[in-house]
Specification:
alpha/beta; Rossmann fold; Arc Repressor Mutant, subunit A; 2 domains; 12 helices
């Protein structure tokens, strides 16, 4: 009987959902760790605060779920690298101002859930468990906004180039980063200028900072209100999370 008990205990441990957290805020990390300790079916396998360390954990731990709590400036290029490190891992984006074109592109990259920073503990844990089962979890308001807004459709390659321009990289640096020639970069940029209706690199950089990075709108509002550098715990009333069975490729559609 004792042997059977040990076997059941080991089996139970093997069935736990392994989660890696990418976060650069120690208080958030400590809070998530505290919550996970009380969940028998969830295991916080690692907490990482750099892209390189997260990529290493994705390759070595092979978690079921990666939770990303991005600060302002987290780019689609970062997300694409994480996606590429382990294509089977489900990704949850959790934080403020994760909407608009950034959310659309994130969905295109296969993100399974986007949660607001003030999501309740119960909804957060439910989302982690659901994405592990292959279910998509998004707020209805976010989906309605993403699906209804007019946009210029960018390919993954085009979005990557715009994000690199927004980071201040020169053509030669972009070419090295992407493994293409400088001439190819110039061709991409020429087509992007026409597609976006822009005349110079500064306009493209501003477009990229506004649409392809997390947290930009929030920073603008804080700056306008004279509250730069101040952080809030969240709004008192969290919005409900909508779950959608995964049956599609690309952006989820609510029927």
């Amino acid at each position: 009987m004792a042997g059977a008990g040990k076997h059941n205990s080991a089996a139970s441990k093997m069935q736990r959902i392994r989660v890696v957290l990418y976060c650069q805020q120690p208080f958030v990390v400590q809070g998530v760790a505290t919550v996970f300790r009380s969940q028998k079916d969830l295991e916080l396998s690692a907490c990482r605060d750099t892209l390189s360390a997260t990529l290493e954990s994705l390759k070595s731990i092979r978690p079921h779920v990666l939770v990303i709590h991005p600060l302002s400036g987290f780019s689609l290029s970062d997300l694409r690298e994480m996606r590429g490190a382990d294509g089977r891992c489900q990704i949850v984006l959790w934080g403020q101002e994760l909407g608009g074109e950034f959310a659309f592109q994130a969905m295109q990259l296969g993100v399974s859930s986007i949660l607001a920073g003030n999501t309740s503990v119960e909804d957060f844990l439910a989302a982690v468990r659901n994405v592990h089962k292959g279910v998509l979890c998004f707020e209805r308001d976010l989906l309605d906004t993403v699906l209804s807004q007019s946009r210029v459709s960018l390919t993954a390659r085009q979005a990557e180039i715009v994000s690199l321009v927004a980071q201040g990289l020169k053509n030669k640096e972009i070419a090295f980063h992407m493994g293409i020639t400088e001439g190819t970069v110039k061709v991409y940029l020429y087509k992007l200028f026409k597609k976006l209706g822009m005349n110079d690199r500064l306009d493209m950089a501003l477009y990229g900072r506004k649409n392809l990075f997390s947290g930009q709108h929030e920073l603008e509002r804080m700056r306008d209100a004279g509250q730069a550098g101040r952080q809030f715990a969240g709004k008192p009333n969290a919005r409900p999370v909508l779950t959608i069975a995964r049956k599609q490729s690309g952006v989820p559609v609510v029927h």
